[in-house]
Amino acid sequence: xxxxxxxxxxxxxxxxxxxPESWWEFDIRPESRDDSIHRMVRERIEQHPxxxxxxxxxxxxxxxxxxxxxxxxxxxxxCMAESFGGDTTVTGSVTVSLVGGRTREGAPLxxxxxxxxxxxxxxxxxDEGDSWRKVTTVDIPGVGPAARTYGIEDIPxxxxxxxxxxxxxxxxxxxxxxxxxxxxxxxxxxxxxxDLADAFFDIFDAVTxxxxxxx
Length: 215
Fold this sequence. Notes:
Blueprint: E1 7-12, E2 15-20, E3 24-25, H1 33-47, H2 55-71, E4 74-82, E5 90-100, H3 113-119, E6 132-140, E7 144-156, E8 165-176, E9 183-191, H4 197-208, E10 212-213
Antiparallel strand pairs: 1-2, 2-10, 3-4, 4-5, 5-9, 6-7, 7-8, 8-9
């Protein structure tokens, strides 16, 4: 799906992950992300003039992805935005966040993948076109087991007074952080291109499988 498929290794504080070279990555801080996005879109279009008609679409998608990533506390946000000559621009994103939780008594929640999976809700689609969610555990090469959910889900729009939702392809993988009680690295992949759900599940799985911790 990506215009180029060479992997690019990204390293942040304590982790690394590989994404296709054609993906976009930018500063997600509110004070600097707009300039970063506009610069990257301009540079990409200079390299590939055929993308010029999609400038506004790409910019709007990247700005929304950056804002959502910042609100979720993401440490990394990578996006793909590709046009294949049709009316629909193929977009998707992967974020990495460090999250944790505690019980009512203040004790760290278990990061055991089986325990996490047991707490995650499965959702069956009652009718065609309904949202759904599956729960499983996977093995991340060089890291170990992790809990995962994937499906077609209705995601709340952040800070929306009308409590609206957006339906999206969503995969979330909860990877225990070594030596930190109650902490997991949450790798989330999402796309609003529902017709390509199976292809995006494969992409998100492939990207997540490259995740590793650094010393």
